[in-house]
From TrEMBL:
Full protein name: DNA helicase (N-terminal), authentic frameshift
Keywords of the record: ATP-binding, Helicase, Hydrolase, Nucleotide-binding
A matching Pfam family: UvrD-helicase
Taxonomic source organism: Latilactobacillus sakei subsp. sakei (strain 23K)
Residue ranges of every copy of the UvrD-like helicase ATP-binding domain listed in the record: 210-260
Length: 315
């Protein structure tokens, strides 16, 4: 009879193999995309002719150029998509997931397991096997409520029963440890994770959100939100999580270039640039207050002594 640990290790091994196969497929697709780009370049230099001798020739030339432009646009879109998928896959290969919730849906007798990670992942058979920590169903994990509960998806409240909440310590394809818990902060392993997260650029803070923090992160009923707390209470981690959450849940309405983060100094800027990718998002525009003023009030600041002028951002 296999133990829970052996079962979880077997599941992890299977998922890791699927991720590895996906990465290989992405690499092949990138290679094919690169070859297609070289083919288009050859067509442009060797076959495309600019002929403007007559009105009919103009139309033919413009049509040929438009066709080439569309092919280039499609290649660029595919390139960006493959890069994003590869980044997600590489991140998941470091730690495929960090938690599992076991749910029972109404009118069903069998329970279902949902594994949560820094990004969602659907294997090559089209089966979703990892769910993004920001997905609606992940809210059940962060609520930490056992028994009958619910989550909201597509404007509907979905009733479920939470039977198990399991947290993992994973390195690549190796299961280090796991524990089942009701209140995360009471578990000594979780406390160790919290302590480690403060010294490793919070790469694991997704797994240690408390219920109160989750309420702040997923708050969508207000346009203004002030986070207050004592030193070390998790204010910074909460705001990072909230930014990543909003960019995920409001992807159609909120673009990355519409988010501005104002940092106290450049050291904090570098810190942000390393944390947000671990949460599944690219870093938005990030300026210090001095850099922001330099862009908004360049003429007014020009009269200041050089020593008092803000440093112009390099990007």
């Amino acid at each position: 009879m296999t133990t829970d640990f052996e079962q979880e290790q077997t599941h992890l091994t299977t998922i890791y193999q699927q991720l590895t196969a996906t990465l290989a497929a992405i690499n092949d697709a990138q290679s094919q995309n690169h070859q297609a780009g070289n083919t288009i370049k050859a067509q442009i230099t060797g076959e495309a002719k600019l002929n403007f001798d007559s009105y009919a020739d103009n139309l033919d030339t413009f049509a040929a150029l438009e066709t080439i432009n569309k092919e280039i646009d499609m290649l660029n879109l595919k390139t960006d998509s493959l890069i994003a998928r590869k980044d997600e896959t590489l991140r998941l290969l470091e730690q495929p997931y960090f938690a599992k919730i076991t749910l029972t849906f109404p009118e069903e007798t069998d329970s279902e397991d949902f594994y949560l990670g820094s990004a969602s992942y659907t294997n090559q058979d089209g089966e979703p096997v990892i769910f993004d920590w920001r997905s609606p169903i992940a809210d059940v994990y962060y609520q930490q409520t056992f028994g009958p509960t619910s989550y909201q998806a597509n404007g509907r409240q979905i009733p479920v029963t939470l039977n198990q909440r399991r947290q993992f310590q994973i390195q690549a394809d190796q299961l280090i440890d796991f524990f089942d818990t009701q209140i995360a902060i009471e578990d000594p392993l979780l406390l160790a994770t919290l302590k480690e997260a403060k010294t490793t650029q919070m790469s694991a803070i997704t797994a240690t959100i408390q219920k109160e923090q989750n309420t702040i992160i997923r708050q969508q009923t207000t346009d203004h939100l002030l986070i207050d707390g004592i030193a070390g209470s998790g204010k910074t981690s909460v705001i990072f999580q909230r930014i990543a959450y909003l960019l995920y849940r409001q992807r159609k309405e909120l673009a990355l270039n519409e988010v501005l983060m104002i940092s106290p100094n450049r050291l904090f800027q570098d810190y942000i640039a390393q944390v947000l990718p671990d949460l599944g998002e690219q870093t938005p525009v990030n300026l210090t207050l001095q850099q922001l003023l330099a862009q908004l009030l360049p003429e007014e600041l020009a009269d200041l002594p050089i020593a008092a002028q803000p440093v112009t951002p390099s990007n």
